[in-house]
Each structure stands twice: as structure tokens, then as C-alpha cells.
């Protein structure tokens, strides 16, 4: 199996967008993983569909956004023949699941949702051009990140195997998490303040005084 | 009557199964509804409230995760373009929570059914096939939306016509704004009291 070129990595990254559609209670992301990694096996003519399915359609868990790392590392392990595939998948299942859920659902999604809510309330719940521009920009930036993390995961995972997971212990990653945590907390505090101001300014509670 | 169920099914597909690019989150779909002529204050306030209700929930594996992007869109779309009253806000909030919860159960049933018939619904020549998986998933979500949307539409139209509780003198925004303050305060406390991220 040759090192995948940029086009192949992009194809694999594109396929990871569909990894969740195959999610099931039997093997979790096992079917999705087979779907994602198949092009590289088929291009190198080393395995048929049946072989790929027999080898990889077993219980596997990941986070959909970090599934690029899973694809890259599994392809690397499969190619080199070094290391136990089952052990590699177990490591990936635990690391990617927890890191991805914390990064996306506890930090990035709240930061985007809270920014949007703050913008709505600052504009008095009137969708002006600025609010629309801010929200579309936030979603566009997230989607650029969404594609980049999948591409980067496949590329790094294929180059460095399980070593690539060390990125989640690096000082840069820790700093990013700290910044996102601070941003989320500041945005939440701002939202509370903004809602209290809105409550006072818009005379919503006037009903009680009459 | 058909466009909103079709869009709702797409929202459920995007938020749960494919891409997951946040384009179907309530803060985005609210903008779409406003472009369609819905009242901005009612929609944006409801979207903010929905986001805050589910902000500390994370979809993990086999757990039943409330499908709030779908719940928000289908309920607010069915509620119509009028300015919400106190009763409307209360009903819509309860309906969003209920529909989101019910949809998570529907999703579980759908997954079990698809796994039972995976050769026909998700596979082609005994290998995962994305076209049939996306197609049949979308059809199953469309069926759900086609049942839910008219039911919600008629229920909300009916309650709108009833002048229940004579609460028209109260500002409807009172409920979501107070709830948003409580939820965001709770979320802030929850995050600050947590040691590790």
C-alpha cells in the first residue's frame, strides 16, 4: 500500500462525513469504519470487500469529528503489520471517543451557540445584517475546522500511527482547551448579564406590577 | 404542508447522521424561519432557550440523546408566523422537549430496524453502501415528520384559537427570558464547579 496522496486523503476525509450513518448497536462504528477505509484497500488491490468487511466489521467506537485519526492509524497499522489491530482499535475507541466528545460538545459547540445567543440578545432579537454575518461566519469557520481535522487526522495518523494521538497531550492542545474553556465561561456570564438587562429594559415583568 | 416536513427530515439527517456541520443547529435554522416570514423575537428567543436547555448534553454512543435541532424546527415551523403569547411560549417549549425526547426513541427503533434488515437498507453486495443508507434514513425521517408536522400544526392552531387562561395581558417573553437566565446561570455554575476539562 503506497502512502496516500492528497486526493486520496481528501476522498477518505469526505467519506468520514458519513461514518455516523452506519452507527448501530451491534458494532457501533464498525460498519462506518469499513466504508471509510475501503478506497485505500481497493486502490492497492490488496483486499476485496469481503476481506475488509471480515477484518474490520467489529465493535469500534470513535467521535465522528476525530474519525480521521482512526482511519489514518488503522490504515497505518494494517499496512505495517506491526502491532495488534484489536489493541489499536481499543485504544482509539477510548481515546477518540472521550477527547472528541469533550472538545466538540463541551467546548466548541457551546462557544458557538453562546456566541450566537449573545449576538441575538445584543441586537434585541432582531436579525440585522451583522448578526447574520456573525452566525454564518461562525458556522463557516467550524466547517473549515471540521474538514481540516478529518484531513489532518488521516494524514498524521497514517504518518505516525498511534504516536499521532500524543497531539492531545501537547502544550498547544492544552492551551487551546484552556482558551476555549475561558471563552465558554465568559460567554455564559455575558449571556446571564445580557438577559438580565433585557428583562429590565423591555419591561417584561410589568404584568406583575399592574 | 410538505416543505417543512421535508426540511425537518433533512435537519434530523444532518444533525444526527451525516456531516454534522452545525448548519441545522437552532441558531441557524431560526434564521431560515425568519427569512420565511416568522416573527424574529419569538423564533430567536425560542432558539436561544432550546440551545440553553441542551447545552450540557453530549450525544454519546447508545444513550438516548434528545434530537433538539429537529424538535425545535418542526415545532416552531408548525406554530406559525404569529407573535407568541405566554401560552404559546409555554406550549412550544414543552412540545420541543417532548418531540426531541420522542425522536430519540424513534431513532433507537430505526437503528434496531435497520440493523435487522441491513442487507436491504444499508448494504450493497454485503458491504456498507452510503447511497442506500442515506436514502432509507431520509425516508424514515420524512415519514416521522409527515406524521408529526400536521399533528403539531393542528394542535397549535387549535390552542391558539382558544383564549385560554386569559393571559393575553402578560408579555409572553417573560417565560423564555426567565428560563434562559436560570439555565445559563446553572450552566455557568456547572462549568465553574467542574475541575477538569
* Total domains of chain B: 1
Strand segment tally of chain A: 0
How much of the sequence lies in strands of chain A comes to under 5%
Shape descriptor of chain A: elongated
CA-CA gap between termini of chain A: 78 Å
Q: Give the overall pLDDT of chain B as a whole number.
A: 91
Report on the structure:
The complex is a heterodimer of chains A (210) and B (197). Helix content of chain A is 72%, strand content 0%. Chain A contains eight helices and no strands. Chain A has helices spanning 6-16, 30-43, 49-56, 67-80, 85-122, 129-160, 171-201, 206-209. The radius of gyration of chain A is 22 Å and the shape is elongated. By secondary structure, chain B is mostly helical. Chain B is built from eight helices and two strands. Chain B has helices at residues 3-17, 26-35, 40-53, 68-79, 86-116, 118-121, 130-161, 174-192; strands at 123-124, 127-128. In chain B, strand 1 (123-124) and strand 2 (127-128) form a beta hairpin. In chain B, helix 3 (40-53) packs across helix 5 (86-116). Chain B is globular. Chains A and B meet through helix 2, helix 3, helix 5, helix 6 and helix 7 of A and helix 2, helix 3, helix 5, strand 2 and helix 7 of B.
What features would you highlight for this structure?
heterodimer; A: 210 residues; mainly alpha; elongated; B: 197 residues; two-stranded antiparallel ribbon; 8 helices
At a glance:
The complex is a heterodimer of chains A (210) and B (197). Chain A has 210 residues and is an all-alpha fold.
